[in-house]
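Whether sequence alone determines local backbone shape is best considered at the level of individual chains. In the encoding step, the backbone of a single protein was reduced to a row of integers, each denoting a local shape. For completeness, the protein is quoted in full, as a sequence line and a line of structure tokens.
***
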Amino acid sequence: MRALALSLLIAAAPCAAQETAGRYAFVPVEAGALRLDTVSGAVSLCKVEAGATVCAAVPGTSAQGEAEVSALAARTARLEGRIAALEARPPGAALADDESIDRVMVLADRMMRRFFGLVREMKHDMDSGEL
């Protein structure tokens, strides 16, 4: 229902905006009319019940939308901060220091020694006929 309401609202919004110069834009739908608050972005479904027009917020369109927007704004701010910090680094600062390079080389040496040790064992097993 929410997706249908929003898609109808988006499709008909240009027409509704031309009809209405005020705060609210109305889009006719099968169940009544969708009311878009052009200031806050809240969407309500309006229909006539017992001779009175009643508008109720479409579930998940206002509070959830605001939460998503604020979460995206916070994420954007964090990413912009990270980018600024990375761009502020002097050239070459991203290169590893000597201690890090030494640790990597020790690990690479151990890995290669184990690998060649396995190769020697397999060759010995093949030569002796155990494989």
The beta strands are 24-29, 32-37, 43-49, 52-57. The chain has a mean pLDDT of 80. The chain has two domains: 2-61, 97-131.
